[in-house]
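Co-fold these.
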Amino acid sequence: MKYELPLKPPNIRALRFYLDMTMIAQILFPTFMFLIFLILPLASVLYVATQYNPLEVISDPMYVSFIPHGELIEIKTRLLFRGREITLIKLKGLSFGVILNSLICASIVTICASIIGIVVAFIMARYDFPGKTFFKILATVPLLMTPFINAFVIKKLFDWRDGLISWFICDVLGIPIRIGVTEIAGVIVAQIMTFFPIIYLNVFSSMINIDPSLEEQAENLGARGFHLFRTVTLPLSLPGLAAGAAIVFIFSLEDVAAPIVFNEKRFMSYQILSKFIEATTGRLSPVAATMAVILLVLALTAFAGIKKYVTLRQYAMLSRGGRWSVRVRRPRIKGLIAIYLCLLPLFILAFPQIGVFIYAFCEKWTGPLPEGFTVDHVAKIVIDPLVSRAIINSLTYSLVALLLIVLMGISASYVIARARLSGIELLDLLVTSPIALPGLVIAVGYFYFFTSVFKGTPLDPITSGPSLLLILAYSIRRLPFTARAIFAGLQQVHVALEEASLNLGASRLRTIRSIVIPLIGLNVVSGALISFVYCMSEVSTSITLGGLGGLSELHQAPITLIMMDYLSRVEGPYVVASLGVLLMSIQLTVITLTNVILKQRYAYIGV
Amino acid sequence: MTRVSLKGVTKRFGKVVAVDNVSLQVEHGELFTLLGPSGCGKTTTLRVIAGFELPDEGKVFFDDEEVTFKKPYERGCAMVFQNYALWPHMSVFDNVAYGLKLKGLSNEEIKRRVKEVLRLVGLEGLENRSPLQLSGGQQQRVALARALVVEPKVLLLDEPLSNLDAKLRLRMREEVKKLQKELKITTIYVTHDQEEAMSLSDRIAVMDRGKVLQIGPPMEVYMHPKNLFVATFIGRSTLLKGIIKKIEKDRATVSVSENLELVGRFTRGIKLEKGEEAVAIMRPEDFFLNGSASSNVIEGSVELTMFLGPFTQLRVKVDSQVIKAYVDPDMGIKSGTRIRLYIRPENVIIFPLTGWEAKSWAEIEWEI
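Predicted complex below.
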């Protein structure tokens, strides 16, 4: 018989019977935190947005224009460049106004990233070929998060003057053509390259989790080749694809790195950010609220659209462990050539991370190729007081946030898994919701809410600096990863183990302390590690709220704000690259640790 | 020692009534068994007593104190779980000592009592093992020791032997009974195994679909089942459908078919009228071979024989009916032989066909 049935407590006495003080506290604590640090800020965004007529924004051709501006492709023939006559092909992209640009760009990025992701995932999941391990590592390299400098390197790759690609075509191969990707097209290309691994990894995990007998059955009935892929493999991978696509769509919408690097202001994310730069005065333009609401609506629509395939809770953690020996095929020569051709772009896709590494350690990289070797740039992150302070800030914020995350994660997950209370799913929805909420929207909400309701308190970012708010923003935004890991652990712990303890006279708190936590300890640790990585590399609230205190000697800014700021400084990109290397090292350490501790790999999603 | 009483306890899970108006009283030091098929509500009843479930209606008393709304940790009863629920991150010693530590006893006292209880269950010297290193039977003993060591008011056992292999189960059954008699703890035992229930219990409550159908000592439940369900669930039996033909005092004759009439007795408190539909129940061990009596002789051909050790089970075809009977294996009866079986009238129990609202005929016949 099943005892975990959710049941409606018929009366107060039943409620008191099933919920002891510990569990009530476990419900109230995360609920209270989410009320103050998520729901009310979001409500204030909506409130501010309703104070102004949205039509004013929408009817402004700067925001929505059905007549495209600019050129999709600019071709200049017989251009004299460095003493040679060349043809210049410049991919630029059309602009339809800020709002439509964001939407169109996010859609193109999602579709292109999906196609690349599916192809790579399919080859990796279904074929065995020489060099597979190498390509597998290559395919996961782009997963390492290096905010800002990533897009910077991509821009450099596609630069028509000193870019590696044009250099290779024109100077190495001698073909008098130079290719450049700039403006909106540049943003799109940078985002595809940055976000495709999210799709790849989610689809890959879906594919290796497909029961091989399902494909065998289809083959047995005569399906093969592309037909088999289209009718069986792809539909069964849809949950992974849907999950990845929704995330990519949202990340693209709120990405600020690529627009900043390509100096492309015609995106919603850039508009919100630029309003924040003026906000040190204590006033944030209501346009930010309007943009934030549109972002929020788009993000929620994306998630609602794929609800059929995947539930919110599956996002925070998609297990990569296949339970069965996966079907792999060994292709013949023709197939092998096709596979290598398909995987060749991986070199370009993995280039940014490799580029960041080279950038950090080279003396100079102004031309097409890097020159010299030095550790001076890396040393700067310790020597430069602004940078080293940012590192200490980020570490402090992340660790304090982690404390809150673990507390909230254990509390919420425990009651979600154990409390026999109808409506407890709402708490589940609440603590996983940050996955679907663009960080920029949260940042805007924090600004409005805490500069007005909490004016003059330590939570007011204008008077007291952003430290406290950043800690809270991190703990809310990065909670889902830990909460899901703990929840998964709790599902492995039989309820009887806790009942045996209660039965022998231990209170709920004592039972949690001496039975539950020791049993789910590894889950807590691995979830916390993942949350830590995401805290350290958090971008959206860090570069908005984080900048409100300014960059004085005793600044409160985190790493990512410094990365954004230093990007435009002389010699700055080298420091940013060094910080990128630092972040990559932290991520690699955590990936290794979680693999060793839990013997299970997590699909890393999110930036 | 504690007396446990349930008064009108009802527990629903959504629309399913798991426990339906159950009232019972377990006396001081008694070993009381809740017996029934899976899903009959016996475990839920136990969990209501332990405090893991709150009844929708009714009350639970330990002696004269109402405990219905008390939390599990306030009740002072100890439970042995079906899967033992040993904590894998603690040693055997820590598992057993857990309840004592909660009581705030001194370390010496804890050590002494853990040692004592481990000796009692025959696990001396295994204190430092991890539960994962133990066999099923040893784990079972640890679970038992963990419950016994706190000297609970009430000991609750939820199918404690069901995960053990057949041989071990029999041995543990004896040990549980011995321990319970030694310690004289009021014990409530849940099982679906009727043999286990009969061999262990002072009294049995037979449950089906949330209701208690009969409470009594094993012998009484076996000999005088109150209704068809109890009669078929306890022991093995053959059921024959017929019509009451004649009634004399407490004896009645049931006409099963043209050639077969059976004289039997009504179960306690039930009387049927002539012409009513009835069911005659016979246990396979009550048949005699080659009976020469004038009545209650059943003639048929042996369809199938199964050697079960102490006896051979025969499937005897009588007209369109099938009867199961145990006979001495030495008789060497083979399939195909025609035989005559005799059964004493006091071993044929007659029940009304109607009035037993629960199961369809198909289900009952399938179970035997």
